Q: What sequence folds into this?
């Protein structure tokens, strides 16, 4: 086969062409991977042809640039007028989302309303700046947005099947002279590309084994043979061979035995047949209700073979309990993209947090110019953003990933007139979604549920009077002094104005219904004097001290009240504290700096990965029901002690990324850490040895055992690092999930970047067994 051609993969990932059958074709061709049904798609064709778009950086910086989707359909090329970087590319995998219209902070600030239908923005993962663009027409903008969304959607479907495509791209790059052959030198270069360091003798043996023609180079079927040797996974052969008893293939009965005995699933013959129908690639095997090794590997890479229980990807918990019975995903200083002293404040920070299902966001409100309130970190050099722009962004993105209520935590430093404008903006922009009175027709005695509050905004802040005034028609009549129970800005400032009493506007006060901020004066005082809707915020050090010295009292407090925890003001770098001890004490709103990649944010992502990523996770019963004697520090006997033994074998990893891609000989030396984070008695970490110079298919086969006392509060975190004997190990990837959400048996573990984004094709292969302790 000569010239260019495309492999059109079916949109349904179960019907992917087995790439090993066509390897010899693509090596001698220009590979273009296009989803079946899109090869004639007008939107995709526009991207492949490319075109000029107006790039917007500021009101004065707007320049035409040419953009084009590369033939591999995974890379976007764009021209640059920089002296040393005239041709630049970015991967489609780097894109978080595409927004149509003036839906970015930059486009809203630097463009006029009449170009709305020609605008769109490419939002990148991590901290990379948005790409704001204007097309020549509304139709062209629509095609760019639709085309990009189709490619992104297709790549997400195929990510678990990208191994072959990824290997091929590396093969093509290794063919330096483009003669469609691989010399020994090119083979060595290729192995470095895929993160394998081999000695010369092994490379020569592998090369000689494939060079059947003795020509000194590999081509056609020889490259296919090399490919087959490369993707061979000994551990899969062993597992498959153990159960494939029918003509070296798995019968439906064999597969059922595997599901029952190894995966410990409650499976039926119908379940086994369904897996064969979905994932078997060989039609003749499928007709006999058999599963080949390729089909078996395909199944293991799907959600059924994932470590995370697919049933927990949807909302499966009871959502009708009072809102204080849930852990609530919460952000601190949500407006900041960076540090607390001179970082950038942006509506984008709110959008990113909300799109991660954060359900409690913070707004630090100050007087702004021209009578408009602003949001920033007071008494610092952080930039400012208009309060009304933040409310608009929250309105637009609050319920795109979760339909459950969003709490707006106000830290109010405004004068009366601007407070009134704050209230006006929230009422006019949020409309009927803003909760302005209790759901009940009479004075409530407990919180409503997340189910009751779907699609609603709840204001947390100071209030001039008790909530029963809503029903008794009493009013404070005038604005009154109201001192905040917390003032995070005061922690980083010596200004006396931070601690003075402050007037509170009735219009703003009246919007506070279920989350009235009050000072904490002790658990007994709260029990005797505070209404259920009166809540306190705690600086991390105070909260951790209470959790460690009065854990049971804190848990009882949180059975009827809400508690919000926030980082110390000394964390000017936007670092985070460990949220686990506060969850152990039943605290619901444990606010973290979402903008800072850290172990703490890994744990937060793991905690809220379950229950449909809704931002709400039901607390264990022993943290909800009165009379409990549970204390995470002492662990007295009780129903919370459901002791488990967690066995895990770390078997292998696949396609770990190179950390330093600028160094062609930079090969990782991977090791795996398995961590348990929960009550102090359960917190533990164990690690494998490091494997030298192999990021492609390292194998460990190392077994660990963890004894778990309180499984309902335990999180499991996998950490893959590049070992360095002279300095701190570098992070390769991580993944965290609740212990109660994992599946037993042979499972693949996806790996995420430090920002929480999936690393395509990379993963761990493990065997897990969570059993009742003897």
A:
């Amino acid at each position: 086969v000569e010239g260019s051609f495309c492999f059109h993969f079916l949109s349904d990932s179960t019907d992917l062409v087995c790439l090993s059958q066509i390897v010899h074709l693509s090596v001698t061709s220009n590979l273009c991977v296009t989803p079946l049904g899109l090869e004639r798609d007008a939107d995709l064709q526009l991207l492949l042809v490319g075109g000029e778009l107006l790039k917007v950086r500021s009101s004065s910086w707007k320049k035409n640039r040419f953009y084009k989707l590369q033939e591999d359909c995974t890379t976007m090329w764009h021209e640059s007028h920089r002296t040393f970087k005239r041709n630049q590319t970015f991967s489609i995998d780097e894109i978080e989302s595409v927004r149509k219209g003036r839906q970015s902070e930059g486009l809203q600030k630097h463009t006029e309303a009449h170009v709305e239908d020609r605008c769109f923005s490419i939002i990148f993962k991590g901290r990379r700046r948005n790409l704001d663009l204007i097309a020549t027409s509304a139709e062209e903008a629509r095609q760019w947005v639709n085309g990009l969304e189709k490619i992104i959607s297709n790549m997400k479907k195929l990510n678990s099947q990208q191994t072959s495509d990824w290997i091929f791209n590396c093969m093509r790059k290794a063919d330096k002279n483009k003669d469609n052959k691989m010399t020994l030198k090119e083979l060595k270069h290729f192995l470095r590309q895929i993160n394998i360091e081999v000695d010369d003798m092994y490379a020569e043996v592998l090369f000689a084994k494939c060079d059947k023609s003795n020509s000194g180079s590999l081509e056609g079927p020889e490259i296919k043979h090399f490919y087959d040797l490369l993707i061979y996974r000994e551990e899969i052969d062993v597992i498959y061979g153990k159960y494939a008893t029918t003509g070296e293939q798995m019968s439906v009965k064999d597969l059922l035995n595997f599901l029952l005995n190894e995966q410990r699933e409650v499976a039926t013959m119908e379940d086994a047949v369904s897996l064969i129908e979905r994932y078997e690639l060989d039609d003749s095997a499928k007709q006999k209700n058999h599963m080949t090794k390729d089909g078996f590997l395909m199944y293991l890479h799907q959600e059924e073979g994932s470590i995370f229980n697919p049933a927990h990807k949807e909302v499966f918990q009871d959502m009708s309990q009072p809102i204080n019975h849930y852990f609530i995903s919460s952000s601190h200083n949500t407006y900041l993209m960076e540090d607390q002293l001179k970082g950038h404040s942006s509506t984008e920070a709110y959008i990113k947090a909300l799109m991660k299902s954060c359900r409690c966001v913070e707004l630090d409100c100050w007087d702004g110019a021209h009578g408009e309130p602003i949001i920033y970190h007071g008494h610092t050099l952080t930039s400012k953003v208009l309060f009304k722009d933040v409310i608009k962004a929250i309105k637009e993105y609050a319920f795109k990933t979760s339909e459950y209520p969003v709490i707006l935590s106000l830290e109010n430093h405004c004068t009366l007139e601007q407070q009134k404008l704050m209230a006006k903006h929230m009422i006019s922009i949020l409309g009927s979604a803003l909760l302005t009175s209790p759901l009940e027709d009479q004075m409530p005695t407990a919180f409503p549920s997340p189910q009751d509050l779907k699609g609603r905004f709840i204001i947390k802040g100071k209030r001039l009077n008790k909530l029963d005034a809503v029903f008794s028609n009493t009013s404070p009549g005038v604005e009154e002094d109201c001192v905040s129970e917390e003032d995070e800005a005061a922690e980083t400032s010596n200004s006396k104005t931070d601690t003075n009493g402050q007037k509170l506007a009735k219009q703003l006060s009246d919007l506070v219904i279920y989350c009235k901020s009050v000072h904490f004066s002790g658990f007994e005082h709260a029990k005797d004097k505070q209404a259920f809707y009166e809540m306190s915020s705690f600086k991390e050090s105070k909260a951790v001290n209470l959790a460690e010295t009065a854990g049971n009292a804190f848990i009882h407090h949180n059975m009827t009240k809400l508690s919000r925890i926030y980082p110390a003001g000394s964390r000017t770098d936007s670092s985070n504290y460990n949220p686990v001890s506060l969850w152990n004490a039943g605290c619901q709103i444990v606010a973290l700096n979402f903008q800072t990649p850290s172990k703490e944010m890994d744990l937060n992502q793991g905690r809220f990965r379950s229950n449909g990523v809704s931002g709400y996770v039901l607390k264990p019963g022993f943290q909800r029901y009165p009379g409990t004697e549970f204390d995470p520090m002492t662990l007295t006997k009780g129903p919370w002690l459901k002791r488990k033994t967690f066995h895990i074998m770390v078997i292998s990893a696949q396609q770990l990324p190179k950390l330093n891609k600028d160094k062609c000989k930079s090969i990782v030396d991977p090791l795996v850490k398995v961590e348990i984070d929960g009550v102090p008695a359960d917190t533990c970490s164990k690690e494998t040895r490091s494997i030298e110079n192999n990021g492609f298919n390292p194998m460990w086969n190392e077994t660990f055992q963890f004894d778990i006392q309180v499984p309902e509060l335990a999180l499991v975190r996998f950490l893959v690092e590049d070992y360095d004997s002279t300095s701190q190990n570098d992070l390769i990837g991580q993944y965290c999930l609740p212990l109660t959400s994992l599946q037993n048996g042979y499972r693949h573990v996806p790996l995420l970047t430090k920002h929480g984004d999936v690393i395509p094709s990379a993963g761990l292969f493990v065997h897990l067994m969570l059993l009742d302790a003897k």
Q: What stands out?
A: The first helix runs from residue 23 to 27. Residues 1-33, 489-500 have pLDDT under 50 and may be disordered.
